[in-house]
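Deviation from plan, reported transparently: zinc ion complex.
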Amino acid sequence: SCRDVNRSTHSQLNASTESYHGKTKKREDYLEWPEYFMAVAFLSAQRSKDPSSQVGACIVNQENKIVGIGYNGMPNGCNDDLLPWSRSADDRLDTKYPYVCHAELNAIMNKNSADVKDCTMYVALFPCNECAKLIIQAGLKEVVYLSDKYHDTPEMTASRRLLSMAKIECRQFKPKRTEIVIDFSSINCSGMLNCATK
Ligand SMILES: [Zn+2]
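Because the crystal trials were delayed, the predicted structure below was used instead.
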């Protein structure tokens, strides 16, 4: 909202203004690191063409720098208009499952650092067993997930077994807010003007 923009503008000015007498407090409702990284994962999921499931993943190093982002989709160079997107069919070859790359795989493969050793993966859904294998072999140390809605499937059970044996910490992210709105028009609100006329 416009009010939020006013406040962020204040804090930027205050930080560089010596004559500040302490009337305006810095923003308190800024995004904390975990919610920022989970939000990046959710934003990248919006790139997915999968009609039934949009999942994003964001890999972060120990300096809180993002080193990989991915979302679920068909492999590079494979025409996603020619491959099936169905969840069920008489023939499994007519479902998406044998073809689609999960967000975790893409985030690891898209890494822009030499490796992802000791990094943390933020991902919307608890990883399946195939992604657990990738997470382990890539040397990640922690998985932060939001939903565990497939908890009782064999894939997730196998995944928990592997991640636990490999001593990869898994924790569920409990968001403080249910949504984060990106409002492109907010940048044009009159925060600066209000501040200058204080
Ligand atoms: Zn997976």
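The first strand starts at residue 56 and ends at 60. We consider this an acceptable substitute for the interim report.
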